[in-house]
Amino acid sequence: xxxxxxxxxxxxxxxxxxxxxxxxxxxxxxxxxxxxxxxxxxxxxxxxxxxxxxxxxxxxxxxxxxxxxxxxxxxxxxxxxxxxxxxxxxxxxxxxxxxxxxxxxxxxxxxxxxxxxxxxxxxxxxxxxxxxxxxxxxxxxxxxxxxxxxxxxxxxxxxxxxxxxxxxxxxxxxxxxxx
Length: 179
Ligand SMILES: CC(C)(COP(=O)(O)OP(=O)(O)OC[C@H]1O[C@@H](n2cnc3c(N)ncnc32)[C@H](O)[C@@H]1OP(=O)(O)O)[C@@H](O)C(=O)NCCC(=O)NCCS
Fold this sequence. Notes:
The chain is α+β, with helices and mostly antiparallel strands. The chain has one domain (16-177): Gcn5-related N-acetyltransferase (GNAT) (Aminopeptidase). The protein contains seven helices and eight strands; from the N terminus they run βαααβββαβαβαββα. It has helices spanning 25-39, 46-51, 53-58, 94-98, 116-130, 145-153, 174-177; strands at residues 16-18, 63-66, 69-78, 81-89, 103-107, 135-141, 157-162, 165-171. β7 (157-162) and β8 form a beta hairpin. The structure holds coenzyme A. This is Acetyltransferase, GNAT family protein.
């Protein structure tokens, strides 16, 4: 029996944003490792994750202070498959208002170029709306064309460049999201 690559897998359930969950352990570890290897970034953090995945998940669930603001980590998940991560920062510091913004995300390498990031950001905007954020700042590296497309497809309106990051505002008005 051959190994299935992500491109060969038909997702039965539509992916959705959930709190980190141990149900996607294998897929998370494989996906994040592939991502690190592609980017040439360290994989050592995956060791402790692999040894005690329940603990790894537990410390990522719920609202936690990161970047000096309340933040929520979501995983984009379909059944047993982990596709990516989206972080919502509930408010902006002066630094985040320049670069970083409310939302950060990535789709792991095996699942890219299938429209997942575009849909994941749309789902992230729904979470922002639930948190009472009505204007969302998203920033991306000036060279990051895929991310720029993801942001524009979700209604991002350009607002200049700071420190090599392009900035975009997305309005979550009632027309888009109901009230
Ligand atoms: C940026 C990223 C999230 C895109 O994820 P993805 O699931 O592949 O994105 P999508 O499939 O929704 O594609 C979005 C658009 O980018 C295009 N695209 C995706 N990868 C591309 C690539 N390598 N080269 C050129 N275009 C690309 C798609 O064709 C699509 O364009 P379209 O809307 O005109 O059809 C993913 O590449 C990633 O995680 N990168 C590393 C982390 C990162 O950059 N995060 C964003 C920080 S702001």
